[in-house]
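Much of what follows relies on a compact textual record of a protein's fold. A complete example follows; check for yourself that the lines match position by position.
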Amino acid sequence: MAAKPVPLSRAGVRIGVSFEFFPPKTAEMEANLWEAATRLEPLSPAFVSVTYGAGGSTRERTHAMVERIACETTMKPAAHLTCVGASCDELRNTLRAYRAAGVRHVVALRGDPPTGFDATYEAAPNGYKSTAELVRDATEMGFEVSVGTYPERHPQSPTLLHDVEILKRKVDAGATRAITQFFFDNSAYFRFLDVAAAAGLDVPIVPGIFPVQNFKQTANFARRAGASVPQWLADRFDGLEDDPVTRRLVAAAVCAEQVIDLIDHGVEELHFYTMNRADLVFAICHLVGLRARSTPVAIPRVEREPPSLPAGAFQSLPR
């Protein structure tokens, strides 16, 4: 009898990962963040991204965190940069500041207006009218540029094809990678890949993975972010509101199922939305074959360029 083919998730294929963190607001949250970063660093991620708050509200903390990652860890930071609420000149100054800090990778996003996710985007005075314009400038300044995309359609998009057309504009402007909004229905991701391929897109479209830590909060966030919540997922967490131990075990099983299915269908890169928590993400990475470095790696010296952060550079997910 012929042997069954070995699924990719069990065939020793090296899976590439990246992690997303958000800037902490308190000393306690900062300690949690660096505990998570220290735990995940030995997995040798391709990069770690650092978010903005709505309307660029965490800009200074984002920059400080990106600079610390660049200087104190072996991980390569990718700074989120959003069009909302800033002029082109302000964002160009921000890019110069990141370059001076040794950062060479940004995640360019339109950003959510401060008035809410569903609000109509309006460019700031002398600001970028679209993400593609920001991508073009960042690329011309020598940055590697990743962008966001929505496998289940952005809430303001009329069709999935419209989302693909917007992604194509960003790729044509210089983006070399797209990271998806999180999703729980893998068929939606594969459908998006088919539509993107038919449109001629050939850059990596990396699935965004959101390990469920709290189902109720996740469901509320998903509704705002345009991600569907399948009934089977709700059923998995039903009745566990007051049982955090079982809830964590179920969360691990759910995330493992999703990730293994993606890998079995040929996915080789994963982007984890960590929520500044490491244990569940670390476990999933271990499950798919990643192993932490057993020996320390010397932190490379960052060549810094004068001047330091320009005054006003930060006075000022996205699309």
Remarks:
- The chain has ten helices and eight strands.
- The two ends are 50 Å apart (CA to CA).
- Confidence is low (pLDDT under 50) at residues 295-318.
